[in-house]
Amino acid sequence: MSYLCCYTECMERTTQKIERRPDFAAIKSFAEFSRYYWYREELKLICKTLGIDASGMKAELVRRIEAYFAGNKILPQAPCRRPRCAPAHVSTDAHASTDTLSLQTGLIACGFRFSKRFRDFFAAQTGVKNFKFNVNMVASAKKVKEDGDLSFTLGDLLDVYYGKKCYAAYDNASLQWNRFVKDFCADEASAAFPCRMKTAAILWKEVRDSTREKIYTHDLLAEFAEQIWQGGNDGI
Description:
- With 236 residues, the chain is an all-alpha fold.
- It folds into three domains: 3-18 and 173-235, no CATH class; 24-69; 88-170, no CATH class.
- The protein is built from eleven helices and no strands.
- It has helices spanning 3-11, 30-33, 40-50, 58-69, 116-126, 135-147, 154-162, 176-186, 196-208, 220-223, 225-232.
């Protein structure tokens, strides 16, 4: 089916009205705020506008906005002039990328990376031959580096792996766009469009800025046929 035929077919179907995402200033409650999708950069800007702490990952920004609506204003932290203190057994030498790793080795001190060296280390610790870092380990390591937390060790990261410690939880919302594109491309009807990624982005914007569930469905092609046509004219 050609793009034009697909468009014509879609235009013949009835579309439904959906509620559009308002400006943040017009939102009166966290419950209303939670109905919409927000990018991390948008959340940071909102936090800065509100005069609250705008640092950290997306989930943390959302929690601060929730606290703001509840009347608890979490102010920005004062900038640190030196790294957070580390316990005596953790090296603070920026060049202490030692050959020997242990559970007491500081994550920052050893120059931690998601590399074979550290996969092998955790494989030996866990007994898992083909060790893979889980999403919470990834989120924790990222936040440790952002915070400059010299006290966080490889042992702490192992505790995150086993679920004994929670330093930073992975934000599952970041997977929504990837899942949306995957499901769109799996729809045979998407082959009718000359630039599928561009079409997916058009549909995603409509879904993202609404109160609907952030997933792809075939019916979106009919519902937003006009937007697809307008946005895809240069690709015909």
